[in-house]
Amino acid sequence: MKRKIVSLILAAAMLLSLIAGLTGCGKGNQAKPSSTQKAETFMVEEGQTALASKDGAAIDFGCLLEAGEEVTIQKVSLPPIDNDVDIYAYDFKLASGQPEGTIELIIPYDDAGLDRDGEILAVGGKYLNEGTGQWEDVLYTVDTEANEVHIFTDHLSTFGVFKVVNEGKRSEYISDVNAYASFLTTKQAEELLKTYAQQGPSWQEDVVASFLHANNSLPMFIETNIPTLLTLGGAYDEM
Fold this sequence. Notes:
By secondary structure, this protein is α+β, with helices and mostly antiparallel strands. The chain has eight helices and twelve strands. It has a single domain (2-230), classed as Chondroitinase Ac, Chain A, domain 3, CATH 2.60.220.30. It has helices spanning 2-20, 119-122, 170-173, 176-181, 186-198, 203-215, 218-222, 226-230; strands at residues 35-36, 40-43, 50-52, 58-60, 70-77, 85-94, 103-108, 123-129, 134-137, 139-143, 148-153, 158-164. 35% of the residues are buried.
């Protein structure tokens, strides 16, 4: 019965997607010309599983990288796109190319001006698609205690955190799906990303089922933008 319900939701969502032309990219997510700051380059040491820049941006690669690999983290300064939106952006690079698996990127943010109860919904992770110049949705979690957003991807590029102070503007920059995804645990987010990457015959239903299981709420999910969840992809090479 549950799988049938999921199938019906997907069918309705796909129809809405065709009619409305939903793409997961808001008009306000267009990136403007940026300036980069001094890059920090690290050499992976034997047994090392994570690296962090001086201002707190980090990459946790587990056992995916070997000793001697070169990783660069560079802060990117962007002109404001809205007086109520702050963007904390970093460029992550691996000298040898792209990682062969899922990694975790950690980007710090300043919580000034945010209400403690609504903070988790006021910040969101994004990926900058260099081809289109658009900020796109990614899978992420929010640690409000450490003021960090944890992004999960298998593709290194420019990533950022959007902080939207004005509650009325949040939906313009942070999708409903990602707002709910911010409550996922690290393990749940990793499992959801694996479902995306596997791309089995029923991957779309599996993604929705995984998301429902993680959030434990069908009514809540029905009200979100399902096509957004299913069109994540720019930041994921395996998809």
